[in-house]
Amino acid sequence: MVPDALSEILDALDRDRDAGESSAATLIAACVDVLDVTGVGIMVMVDNGHRGTVGGSDDAIRLVEELQYSLGIGPCIDTCNTGRPVLEPDLAHPVVPRWPELSGPAVDAGVAAIFGFPVQIDGVGLGALDLYCDEIGDLTAEQHADAIVMADVIAREIIQWQSAALPGTLTSELDQPERLRFAVHQASGMLSVQLDISVHDALARIRAHAYAEDRPLDEVAADIVGRTLLVE
After folding, report:
1. Three-class SS of residue 118?
2. What predicted TM-score, i.e. pTM, was given to this entire model?
3. What is the largest CA-CA distance in the chain?
4. Using a CB cutoff of 8 Å and minimum separation of 24, what contacts does 121-125 make?
5. How many C-beta atoms lie closer than 10 Å to residue 177's C-beta?
6. 98, 170 Cβ separation under 8 angstroms
7. Regarding beta strands 113-121 and 49-56, do their DSSP bridges make them parallel or antiparallel, or are they unpaired?
8. How many angstroms separate the Cα of 136 from the Cα of each of 67, 90, 152, 179?
9. DSSP for 160-193?
10. pLDDT tens per residue, the chain (232 residues)?
């Protein structure tokens, strides 16, 4: 990435903050433009759990983010867990199948290749940068290097967002009910207490139930919170 391009992105983010506006849309648009990919999504991770997305550039990547959230699998999950990029240049015909439940719907939506890059700062994971292309193929060396740079920009922007929040709260860019799925986390906590299991295991059971019933994760969680559904 040429220095001028990076400077322009940082300046645009500064202008958003100075104007009191969210810089999320600017960040996503900059990633699409600089990385020359079809679509971009940014996922937030808290305590090794998927908390939702900051945003996505188009319907296809938003579907991918929804699937990753609902299923608990995908390139962003893997890149957060390993701290390394996860690259799949041919999602329909991977050399080693990794996400069979995600691949079919994603390919149908136009995702031919998908790539995840960890968003972290000083070794602390904050989330992931999700990229996709509508044609099969690897990222170029330049795209790969630029994705690492943009992942660092995203990490620092998330820190900037959160630095403006009151102690014990989330900044507005992150504190979005439709993104962070509070009902899911509440349901996981309730099920954890009811079954005397970890929150992680409780979430896994909720995901399994939603997948088996072919229902959105949010709906299942809402039923648990409303005490109209018991998951065992």
Report:
1. strand
2. 0.77
3. 56
4. 121/152, 121/155, 121/156, 121/159, 123/83, 125/45, 125/48, 125/80, 125/83
5. 9
6. no
7. unpaired
8. 20, 5, 26, 29
9. HHHHTSPTTS--TTT--HHHHTHHHHHHHHHHHH
10. 777 888 899 999 889 888 877 788 899 999 999 999 999 999 887 655 555 678 889 989 988 988 888 788 899 999 998 999 999 999 999 999 999 989 999 999 999 999 999 999 888 888 999 999 999 999 999 999 999 999 999 999 888 877 765 555 555 555 444 444 667 767 777 777 788 887 667 777 877 777 777 777 778 877 888 878 878 7
Structure tokens at 13: 């983010």
197 is written with which tokens? 């299991």
